[in-house]
Amino acid sequence: MAGGSPRAKGMGCLKSPFGRIYVVLPVLLLTPLIASAQSTEYLYPLVDLPSAPPLLVRAEDVPDDTGERLALSWTRSLDDGGGQNNVVSYIIQRKEVPDPESGEGNQTDFAVIDEVEAGTSSYTDSSCEPEHTYVYMVAASNGVAVSYSRPSEPAEARSHFFHSQRWNTLIGIVVITLLLVYFIYSARKGKDLFIRRIAGLDAVEEALGRATEMGKPILYVSGLSTMADVATIAAVNILGQVARKSAIYEIRLIVPCYDPIVMAVEREVVKEAYLDAGRPDAYNPNDIYFVTQSQFAYAAAINGIMLREKPATNFYMGMFFAESLILAETGASTGAIQIAGTDAVVQIPFFITACDYCIIGEELYAASAYMSREPLLLGGLKGQDWAKFIIGVLIVIGVITSFFTTWFSDLFIVG
Amino acid sequence: MKKTLFEKLLVIDRRWIFLIIGIVVIAALVLPIKLSIGITTPVQNFFDVIEGASEGSVILVSMDLGPSTLPELEPMLKATVYHALSHGLKVIAMTLLPDGPSIAERIMLQVTDELNAKYEAAGDERRMVMGEDWIYLGFRAGYSAVILQFGEEIRQAYPSDYYGVSLDDYPMMEGVHSFDDMGMVADISGTALPEAWVSYAGAPYGIPILVGVTAVSAPQYYAYTQTGQMAGLLGGLKGAAEYERLLSYDGTATKGMNAQQWIHIVIVAFILLGNIAYFVTRGKKDRDKTATKS
Amino acid sequence: MRRQIPLVIALVAGLFGALSYVIMDPVIQGLREQMLAWLRLLSAFAIGLGIASFLRNHGNKMIRQVPGWAFNAVAIASFLVMALVGLFGGIDEGTLFRQLFDYLQAPMEATMFSLLAFFIASAAFRAFRARSKEATLLLGAAVIIMLGRVIDVDWLSNITEWILEIPNGAAQRGIVIGVGLGIIATALKIVLGIERSYLGGE
Fold first, then answer.
1. With contact defined as beta carbons under 8 Å apart, do B89 and B183 qualify?
2. Which of A341, A409, A8, A379 is nearest to A199 (CA)?
3. Could you tell me the sign of the dihedral formed by the alpha carbons of C184, C190, C195, C200, in that order?
4. Chain B residues within 8 A of A114 when measuring between CB atoms
5. Are A324 and A347 spatial neighbours (Cβ–Cβ below 8 Å)?
6. Is the dihedral of CA A292, A295, A297, A298 positive or negative?
7. Which phi and psi (to 5°) does residue A360 adopt?
8. How confident is the model at residue A6 (pLDDT cuts 50, 70, 90)?
């Protein structure tokens, strides 16, 4: 209360009844007014009390970034979370200062950079300039008044050359690259590399033979993805092999495409294959055409081709989505032999149900190496298998060690 | 030789199966016989993440669906946006598919209108205002390139929203620059994009990724929910129906589930019938073979 | 030369993309942002390429009057109508473009997707036969999951969730790890110039 405590000044008057009246009466009169004055309109004209200030404001550089972030932390105001002067927000202020060691840098005044809600005790400032030094103040606001913390120690926003939490990814890439290079080198030197039999790829010859006997075309669907997808690249590789054989056997090859860039690549691949087979005259670019990039419109178009042209063999190689069963069932209804290959794990059950042969997951990536037996590709496949073996061993070690400690599995967390 | 009933059943014209399926679907949609819907853990987790977020948190909702997956994904998308907005979260809507923009805009407008009508009817003063409670960014080509840019600065990919307004003109975008300033990402997708969100947003930035996918894609994401790489998963119409039940939201998934429930039962009946026919005819063939030998 | 330049670009861009993931230098990160912006530009350009290819293909068939050329005419007419209506009438809510999309295209695509329900039924009837031990296991799991997803019985739902999380999760994880390694290997082969199919031909 204004004027100091009654305890300090008027304790003597309380000894007599009349003296007590001088204390009791004002209290009796004022108490209802004070008690009812919960709104700021009444209370604050009497007093303007700010909240208790936040304490221990600290600023630290955020690691593994390009130097534009500093992390702030502070101890929340004592009035945060209730009380008469309850904090409603914290106002973050910042000023730039010269580097304490070198003396270089600008000097600015404090300016507000953000306001965060009550209950917060940390903030990331993402608007720093790299290699600049800053000082922060955090103010607790109760909607009427603010109280400022002491300024933090200067902190420099530093850029870091290397992301310290991604070293495991870098090591993984280096190890896999070395494995690939080693096995490719070995294959080039003439070392014989074994690949197990893949039934779906062995059946390609049989499927093409059937088409030749029946005099009907082959339909090759290379999936619904772009050249950026590895499955599409694998599909294009297999198309090259299929095209070479269809040129030799003089079978018409129909390749309806989902993506125009894939179409352009496939035209080149098929043309090259026909040239290699010595049948450039048989190449028909109109049989390799773009249909549409709408998923089900594409499926409808393929179904139409299957029902009209009645191909003897259908190939489904690449990335597929929900239309896979629609294509495979329609193809099955026409009596065609069907070979599918996809790395879309969700669609594999549908292809297994409706197709005669199914190439699963990485068998699709192995297809070009398997069919061509080219040393470079075989070596790459072998390197991939060894990488898988190493990952399997790491998984087993991780499972065993996880019973005792998380140290090993923490090594594989990527930041 | 005259075929037995089971032998005929094994080679039945598929059009009879299509007809039976069609009749069951129509009957299930028309008749009021309903089965109850239980709540599964991935859906509960999806709900809990949004429910547990503090008011004012930002949720990025990527609406990566086209017309073909609309019947299956629209219910869960509406329920997600409804939940987020009614819980006081700030919604940033966007799409990475070229045929998604009009769908996404329609859904945002429908849900906000629905919420505003509900508040007005209840005498609540709250209103969902674009720019303060939600914004719609539209479409950007590039898929993972866009996601990667969001990790640095949203304005690199979207300097302005779908309506051409600069993001800096919206009050809710103040201080929101990247995944670090967001509470979570929800990707409702009929494509393989959820994996891209996990790889390029969840893993490097640690932001929780909530995913809603078609029923066909859902099994492959259980591996991600187990490891926590996906914080929640809605799978197909069933997942959407469960979510609507948790929200007590009167959506279309619950209505559509009736048909799906009966269809599943009918397909199981077909499978069992087919196996009975298979074993009976196989037994008959074995008996005929034995009779021929003797 | 025609094939060397793309190989060099693939090598430089691939190495840069990998290194910029671990190197945080501001200059490198700035270049990375530029590369991502260019990637988005190229993706958008591919849409234009698709339009040109679409018009050329259907146009040629119309001109040559191949059997069924009327459908090629319908395809081009649909494309032109949507493009012109969108360009001149706008694409906002309530416009003709939006109505054509919402009441023609969306239902047509949804209808095609819904064909799956019929095809799954016929495929399930034909394929889920207990011909062997593995086929019986597949059949059993399929029946449990199909019923467990729609019938709200605790023990059935628990078994369904267990199958989806444990055996299914393990199998999916194995395939995903294998596919992921295949992607890494193929990407490395592209960067190192070993895989050249994207250039077309040998």
1. yes
2. A341
3. positive
4. 175
5. yes
6. positive
7. -105, 130
8. very low
As a whole number of angstroms, the distance between CA B152 and CA C26 comes to 12
Whether A37 shows a pLDDT value over 50: the answer reads: no
Residue B159: how many other CB atoms lie within 10 Å: 12
Are B67 and C122 in contact (CB < 8 Å)? no
Q: By the CB < 8 Å criterion, does A117 face chain B?
A: yes
Q: Is A114 on the interface with B (CB under 8 A)?
A: yes
Give me the interface pTM, i.e. the ipTM.
Answer: 0.81
Closest by CA position to A97, among listed A49, A133, A53 = A133
Measured between beta carbons, the chain C residues lying within 8 angstroms of A297 are 109, 112
Q: Residue A415: which of B177, B192, B204 has the nearest Cβ?
A: B204
CB-based contacts of A350: which residues, under 8 Å, 6+ apart? Answer: A324, A325, A328, C123
Distance CA A280, CA A299 (A): 30
Secondary structure (3-state) at A140:
strand
Q: Which residues of C touch A266 (CB under 8 A)?
A: 200
Note down pLDDT in tens along chain B; length 294 residues.
566 788 888 888 889 999 999 999 999 888 877 778 889 999 999 999 999 999 999 999 999 998 888 888 999 999 999 999 999 999 999 999 988 898 999 999 999 999 999 999 999 998 999 999 999 999 988 888 889 889 888 998 899 999 999 999 999 998 898 898 899 999 999 888 999 999 889 988 889 999 999 988 888 898 899 889 999 999 999 999 999 999 998 888 988 888 888 899 999 999 998 899 888 888 777 777 777 665
Given a contact cutoff of 8 angstroms between Cβ atoms, the answer to whether C17 and C35 are in contact is yes
Q: At what angle do helices A260-276 and A230-249 cross, to 10 degrees?
A: 40
SS3 C67: coil
Residue in A319, A344, A346 closest to B219 by CB: A346
pLDDT score recorded for residue A199: 83
Q: Would you call C93 an interface residue with chain B, using a CB distance cutoff of 8 Å?
A: yes
Report helix, strand or coil for C23. Answer: strand
Q: Which residue on chain C is closest to A271 by alpha carbon?
A: C201
> Closest partner residue to C36 among B36, B37, B145, by Cβ?
B145
Minimum CA–CA partner of A299 in chain B: B68
Out of B216, B220, B278, the one facing C129 most closely (by C-beta) is B278
> Any CB–CB contact under 8 A between A406 and chain B?
no
Apex CA A328: angle with CA A324 and CA A333, to 5°? 150
**Distance (Å) from the C-alpha of residue B9 to the closest C-alpha of chain C?**
10
Task: Name the nearest CA neighbour of A138 among A126, A156, A157, A125.
Answer: A125
Measured CA distances, A13 to A1, A21, A29, C14 (Å): 19, 9, 19, 90
Q: How far apart are CA B259 and CA C114, in angstroms?
A: 13
Instruction: Characterise A160 by phi-psi region: left (phi > 0), alpha (psi -120 to 50), beta (else).
Output: beta
Mutate to test the interface with C, among B23, B275, B279, B282 (most CBs of C within 10 A): B275
Distance from CA of B116 to the nearest CA of A (A): 26
Contact residues on chain A for C192, CB-CB shorter than 8 A: 180
Q: What's the confidence (pLDDT) of residue A116?
A: 84
Q: Is A192 exposed, middle or buried (0-12, 13-18, 19+ CB in 10 A)?
A: exposed
C-alpha dist (Å) from residue C91 to A78, A222, B106, B159 = 54, 33, 12, 21
pLDDT band at A8 (very low <50, low <70, confident <90, very high): very low
- Partner-chain residue, chosen from A117, A322, A414, that has the shortest CB–CB distance to B216: A322
Query: Best interface-test mutation with B: which of A66, A94, A126, A413 has the largest number of B CBs within 10 A?
Result: A126
Closest CA to A383 of C189, B263, B197, B205: C189
Instruction: Judge contact between B220 and A346, C-beta under 8 A.
Output: yes
